[in-house]
Amino acid sequence: MSSQSDVRFTDFKSDKQPTWCPGCGDFGTMNGMMKALANTGNDPDNTFLVAGIGCSGKIGTYMHAYALHGVHGRALPVATGVKMARPDIEVMAAGGDGDGYSIGAGHFVHAVRRNVDMTYVVMDNRIYGLTKGQASPTSRADFETSTTPEGPQQPPVNPLALAMASGATFIAQSFASDALRHAEIIEEAIEHDGFGFVNVFSPCVTFNDVDTYDYFRDTLVDLKEDGHDRHDYEAAKNVILDAEKEYQGVLYQNENSVPYHEQHGVTENMAEIPDGAPENAMDLVREFY
Amino acid sequence: MTEDLNWAIGGEAGDGIDSTGKIFAQALSRAGRHVFTSKDFASRIRGGYTAYKIRTSTERVQSVVDRLDILVALTQRTIDENLDELHEGSAVIYDGERSWDAEIPDEITAVDVPLKSLAEEAGGAIMLNVVALGAACEITGFDVEYLDESLEKRFGGKGSKIVENNREAARKGRDYVREHYDLELGYELETTDNDYVLLNGDEAIGMGALAAGCRFYAGYPITPATNVMEYLTGRIEEYGGHVVQAEDELSAINMALGAARAGARSMTATSGPGIDLMAETFGLVATSETPLVIVDVMRSGPSTGMPTKQEQGDLNMTLYGGHGEIPRFVVAPTTIDECFWKTVEAFNYAEKYQTPVYLVADLALAVTEQTFSPETFDMDAVEVDRGKLVDDEGAAEWLDDKGRFRAHAATDDGVSPRAIPGTVDGAHMSTGLEHDELGRRTEDTDVRVEQVDKRNRKVETARTVEDWDYREFGNPDADSVVISWGSNEGALVEALESLEDDGIDVRLLSVPYLFPRPDLTEAVEAADDVIVVECNATGQFADVIEHDTLTRVDRINKYTGVRFKADELAAEIAASLTEEVPAQ
């Protein structure tokens, strides 16, 4: 599809200049998303992007598509509603680690369970950037911030394990700076039949001096080169629960994923309705005899 | 007052009280009688007491009254709970063979029927309630054959044998009373050839949504709104729609918002506690200019309050709830049939004005079943107005000089063109941040003012374009005016009839539009006495009326958790009108 398509990834770019800090990981994250959308044959008029709140949430303004920048933590429910009403539309949700794993953690679990055919990109910088540097749910236990001078002293959320425990059918991780691999992984998430979840290491250059570009470059293990079998649940479990290493790639994919719309027979374009009551509507009344 | 019969069955939760009552109500309806039902969920005494009450007449009935003629009591508590409503002509049907000794006052006719034994003879003790129905039929001169159709409706899914057994059980109850009692209570339930349907307010809202083209519903179960969701489930799919049970109300409203932005007519329904959670997203719905219908079926608050009890306490929440200033519509049906029509209207307001619409009902409407002629719900009269929804060509007319779609264009009437996904060149951003006409964040002072004014202008446009009428009853020239909102209308209409019999003329204004709302200044100024009737403690609507009309009003408030009854209202209104005016 991508080779025939005349949509270029820049078509997904709005003319609004990002106000992210120079060097922010979100630039790379967004570029990969735009490339992946174009490569999978989508165009802005058939794409819906739901953005969370936070630095990452600004992505809705910088990309060009049908988009909603909503309430903090609620991007996934909005995206779920869009996709159920319009199975014909490509739906992508994007937000940060605070949006997805803190205020929106409840929705994350249930969105994963529902397995709606959409892509969820979390720009994980392990810090609250927009509010100028407080601990996030993925911050390290000893990561000192203005609100946690001794560090949170709690283990960080493992979003991949949270997804797996919730019955995820596609669990991936990428690095904003590894442009080719990042775009490739997002593309796979888009093409997955179900909920394609990608946790993206998207470094904050202003408030996080620990989880830096250099840190990820030095430590990241690419599962593509590692002979990892993404369809092997046990193997996936091992890498997901491995606290010693940071991984890039598709950690798990369920080959037998049945997306929500197939499971529940939700296939219609719900925007199309008649000018009045449905033809057989008096039958609804007669039911009450 | 209307020539009526008041019947009830009561017992413990789990005794099948609801379904038994519904079977009798349906049978009465099929026999061409009007029916108005009510439910007692919980008790003034502690415990699991529950009762299903039916008021029936050949004329329209639209209120409960303080009188019970026939009571099927499965427990002593049922008798105790209803003692003050029983009278000399009442009969209590009970099972003397069961473990409790019924204490029934002497002046009330006790009809001892071995319900359980007879049910066992018919095929199973579980049918004892149906034996009682048969007994009630005999006492009220109502042909037991009318039960057959509703028994088929209730038990048809369990096989013809079960249906036959139940029919037999009903006849055993009838025959037992016929053989053992020679009652002369004078009850004779006439039948007519009239054709009625029987439904409650939640069902009417659900049916209204389907008629209006609602295709997406997201909700989280909560009493007394769950029935809306249950009605839609299994039916909306016939029209290509879908119901999803969300993980909480935060999610439910956001899912509904997403579906609406994708172009579907979309709805969520909840009660007060859910409205509190949804308040978070309410402002987003308004600033992103998304058409959405949010149903609040009110129950007693605050907090968890009394979940199965009546209250009209959410008026201020729906009128003013949410931080910042949020344009909205608030529509509150006053009867069960209006639950249908106001839902249809709500969808049209939502799409015409791209604004959230609160549809505010209350528990009394939601759980009450009432008979209507099927034509009351004339589907040919349903209109669907999608407002400024644009297609590809329409979208092209709203592009700026750089080819960008102006989704929030500040038009004269405040309503912008609406492009949904798939519309060519319609792609745009929308946000809860203040934004320019392209939907992009701004803090520019001029644009801020322009967008606030534009959103508020939609309400102003609606104020002049739409009809915001009230429903009027009683004597239009009366000096005394009673104003009400929500489900009190039916009881008030009946109260007015009895007041009229006593020579007291009252004009009743029943207001279904709470924002925008009709201007009642003239009516209030012309009246000597104005009384605002509502089921809450503080008089929220009375405050609104005083604010609108700059006139002090009298108030009748009830916040016991029980709806107003017609006879009670007649007495209170009469008392209020004859009260001495205290010296200023």
Q: What's the SSE pattern of chain A?
A: HEHEHEHHEHEHEHEHEHH
The number of helical runs of chain B is 19
- CATH superfamily name of the largest domain in chain B? Thiamin diphosphate (ThDP)-binding fold, Pyr/PP domains
Radius of gyration of chain B: 26 Å
Count the beta strands of chain B. Answer: 21
Question: For the terminal residues of chain A, how far apart are their CA atoms?
Answer: 54 Å
Q: Note the overall shape of chain B.
A: globular
The name CATH uses for the topology of the largest domain in chain B is Rossmann fold
Oligomer designation: heterodimer
**From the helix content, strand content and strand pairing of chain A, which structural class follows?**
alpha/beta
CATH class (first level) name of chain A? Alpha Beta
In the CATH hierarchy, the architecture of the largest domain in chain B is 3-Layer(aba) Sandwich
- Uncertain runs of chain A with pLDDT below 50, 5 residues or more? none
Overall spatial form of chain A? globular
State the helical fraction of chain A. 25-40%
Number of helices of chain A: 11
Q: Main beta sheet of chain A: strand number and arrangement?
A: 8 strands, mixed
Strand content of chain B: 15-25%
CATH topology of chain A: Rossmann fold
Secondary structure category of chain B: alpha/beta
Give the arrangement of secondary structure elements.
The complex is a heterodimer of chains A (289) and B (584).
Chain A: H1 25-39, E1 47-51, H2 59-62, E2 66-69, H3 75-85, E3 90-96, H4 97-103, H5 105-114, E4 118-124, H6 159-165, E5 170-175, H7 179-191, E6 195-201, H8 213-219, E7 221-222, H9 233-240, E8 247-253, H10 260-264, H11 282-286
Parallel strand pairs in A: 1-2, 1-3, 3-4, 4-6, 5-6, 7-8
Antiparallel strand pairs in A: 5-8
Helix pairs in contact in A: 1-7, 4-5
Chain B: E1 5-12, H1 17-30, E2 34-40, E3 49-57, E4 68-73, H2 76-82, E5 86-94, E6 109-112, H3 115-122, H4 128-140, H5 146-155, H6 160-180, E7 197-200, H7 201-211, E8 214-219, H8 226-232, E9 242-245, H9 249-261, E10 265-270, H10 272-287, E11 292-298, H11 315-320, E12 329-331, H12 336-353, E13 356-362, H13 363-367, E14 369-372, H14 392-396, E15 429-431, H15 445-465, E16 471-474, E17 480-484, H16 489-501, E18 506-510, E19 513-515, H17 521-526, E20 529-534, H18 540-549, E21 554-557, H19 566-578
Parallel strand pairs in B: 1-4, 4-5, 5-6, 8-9, 8-10, 10-11, 11-13, 12-13, 17-18, 17-20, 20-21
Antiparallel strand pairs in B: 1-3, 2-3, 7-14, 12-19, 16-18
Helix pairs in contact in B: 1-5, 3-4, 3-6, 4-6, 5-6, 7-8, 7-12, 9-10, 16-19
